[in-house]
Amino acid sequence: MKYIETSLIHTGKEFNTTSSVTPPIYQTSTYYAPENPEEYLEMAGEISPSHFYHRHGNPVNNQAAAVIASLEGKEAALMTSSGMGAISTAVLSIIEKGDHIIAQNAHYSSVSMLFREFLPSLGVEVSFVDQADNEAFQEVIRPNTRLIYLETPSNPILTITDLSFVGKLAKEHGIVTMCDNTFASPINQRPGDFGIDVVVHSATKYLGGHSDLTAGVICADKEFIAKAWKRMIILGTSLSSFDSWLLLKGLRTLSLRMERINSNALQLASWMSEHKAIKQVLYCGLPSHPQYELARKQMKGFTGMICIDVAGDDEDAQFKHAQTILNKLVLFTNAASLGGVESLIVHPASMWGKHHTKEQKLKAGISNGLLRISVGIEHINDLIADFDQAL
Ligand SMILES: *Cc1c(COP(=O)(O)O)cnc(C)c1O
What we know:
Blueprint: H1 4-10, H2 37-44, H3 59-72, E1 76-80, H4 83-92, E2 100-104, H5 109-121, E3 125-129, H6 134-139, E4 145-151, H7 163-173, E5 176-180, E6 198-202, E7 216-220, H8 222-235, H9 241-251, H10 254-272, E8 278-282, H11 292-298, E9 305-310, H12 315-328, E10 333-334, E11 344-346, H13 348-351, H14 358-363, E12 370-374, H15 380-390
Parallel strand pairs: 2-3, 2-4, 4-5, 5-6, 10-11
Antiparallel strand pairs: 1-7, 6-7, 8-9, 9-12, 11-12
Helix pairs in contact: 1-3, 3-9, 4-8
The structure holds pyridoxal-5'-phosphate (PLP).
Pyridoxal-5'-phosphate (PLP) binds near residues 84, 202 and 214.
C-alpha cells in the first residue's frame, strides 16, 4: 500500500482471523492452549502473541499497532495503556542506573515529572536543554549519555526541535533518540524520516480522535519493540481490548480529520493574529512563529494546537482576561486533553499550577495569560464566531 489513506483502512487485516469486516472485541483475559505442547511453548515465548494471555498481546492491539507502525514508517509498534504507559515503558526498556538522559526544558507535564523526579530517584542523571538551541544538545553529551528525549511541537507552547540535527548528532555518538509525536500526529510529521529511532504517542489524542479512550503506542525497529514488550509485561502497561477496538475505529478517519483540523487551525490562528485582545498567537503554521521555517522543513501540516497570550496590563489582569474568555466561549469546551473532533481549550497556568513551580512554568513558557486551544472539525465560521463574541 502506497498511500497512508489506504493503509489506515487495510493494514493489519491479517490479525482478524474471523470473517467479520470489523474485528470483534476480544473481551477475554486468556485463550485455550493449543493441544500440541510445542506450539504452546512457542506461543508463550512470542513477542505480542495474539492468542495467549491479554497482558502479553491481543489480536486487535496487534492490528492497531500494525496500522500505526505503517503510519510512522517504522518496522513495528507496541500498544500501551496510555501515552505515559508508552513513554515510561519505552524509557525504562533501555535506561539503567548510572545512565544519562538529555531532555528538553518543555515537556508534557507528567513527562517532566518522570525526568525531574522519578528517574533521578533511581540513580539516572538528566540534563535539560532549550530545544530551540541545537548547540545546547551537543554541549551536554557525556560518555554515559544513553538517550535524547524529544517532544516537537512541545506541549503547550509549540516550540520546535530540529529533528534531523538531533538525529544526526545522536547517531554520531551512538545515542538512542526518542520523540513524542503526539502534538503533530503522523499525518503531519514522521520523526523516523529524520533519523529518530523511537516514536511515542499518546493515542488518547489525535490517533483515537474522539476523546473516548486512553491509549499509547511505541514505534521503532523490531529489536527495540521486543525490549519494550519485555518491559511492558513487567510493568503491566498493556492496553485494554475495548480501548484498542475504539482506537482502530478512530484511526480509520485520521487522515480526513487531520486535513480538516490543519485547515481550521490555520484559519483560526490567522484570524486571531489580527485581533487586538490577543497579545500573541503561537501557531507553527504562521510565518510569525519564531521557528516557522524549521516547522515547514519537517512538518507536512501544522496540527490543531494553537496557543494565545491574551492582553492585560499585568499578570493579574491577564489571568482575569483569560478566565473571562474561557467562560464566554460556547463551542470551545474548557477541558484537559486535545486532539478530538470537538474543540477544547485550557488555561495551562491553572491546569498545571499544582505540578510546576513558578520558575518551571516560566521556563516552559506558561504565563498567566496563556490559553491552549485544540481545534476540532467543526465548521470554521462557527469557531471564529465563537471567539469573536468571547473576545
Ligand atoms: C497527553 C499527552 C501525553 C500523555 O498521554 P496519556 O494518554 O494521557 O497518558 C504525553 N505527551 C503529550 C504531548 C501529551 O499531550
